[in-house]
Specification:
Layout: E1 54-56, E2 65-67, E3 74-75, E4 79-87, E5 90-97, E6 103-105, E7 110-114, E8 120-121, E9 125-129, E10 136-139, E11 144-153, E12 162-164, E13 166-170, E14 174-175, E15 178-183, E16 195-202
Parallel strand pairs: 3-14, 4-15, 9-16
Antiparallel strand pairs: 1-9, 2-10, 4-5, 5-11, 6-10, 7-8, 7-13, 11-16, 12-16, 13-15
Length: 215
């Protein structure tokens, strides 16, 4: 198993991130990831987009304004990130400006998968233009940008599977990282997530959820 190479890490949603865990406020002390989160889905997937996506090589309530300019560098400390599971292997990523001033972002967030020992895992990740090119988005305090995330699930016994228990995010053109809260299909925060993944695709950040999870 390639568990402990680079990152922090999440016991198996049976689909691209095998995500298993118990919800929200778990008791103190060690707990084991619990039953499959996808089974009790109460969250529907985002609306369907009409345009077909093209891919990019990977590397790694208020109004929102968007222009074609390239944004300046921003700090991850000014954001809160959530990944809400839509169905097995598919999530809706929301990036909220928690600062006191507007910030402008454009493109793709960078996701980091961390193993149980907090080492970063080298999960193959592809940036794709879904639902299309990412506009420059100016987020006022308290507003969000959205992106779709799709993952392939692997068997924990397979050396090509990465087992992550923490997910982090680096904003586009940003510095530092912030931990991503994982929200289950029941709408509750997952206390002890686990992702057993072989590869990941990340869509562009958009000012609305329209079409972002249509892979």
């Amino acid at each position: 198993m390639r568990g402990s190479t680079i990152g922090q890490g999440v016991a198996g949603i049976a689909a691209v991130f095998a995500l298993t865990a118990c919800s929200g406020g778990g008791t103190a002390g060690a707990q084991q990831p619990s039953s499959d989160l996808v089974a009790n889905s109460s969250t529907s997937a985002a609306p369907t987009a009409t345009s077909s996506p093209s891919s990019q090589p990977s590397a790694e309530p208020g109004k929102q304004q968007h222009t074609g300019t390239t944004p300046a560098s921003v700090s991850a400390s000014g954001f809160h990130a959530e990944l809400t599971i839509q169905q097995a292997g598919l999530g809706l990523l929301a990036l909220e400006n928690t600062g006191k001033s507007p910030v402008t972002i454009k493109g793709w967030p960078q996701l980091q998968f961390l193993a149980a020992d907090d080492s970063q895992l080298k999960v193959p990740t592809q940036n794709v233009e879904i639902p299309g090119p990412g506009p420059s988005i100016t987020l006022r305090p308290g507003t969000n940008a959205f992106a779709g995330v799709k993952w392939e699930t692997g068997d924990k016994g397979n050396p090509s599977t990465f087992v992550a228990t923490t997910l982090k995010l680096v904003p586009p053109h940003g510095s530092g990282s912030t931990v991503v809260d994982v929200i289950g299909t029941d709408g509750k925060k997952v206390g002890y997530p686990e992702f057993d993944v072989t590869s990941v695709k990340v869509g562009t950040l958009q000012p609305s959820t329209q079409g972002v999870t249509v892979f």
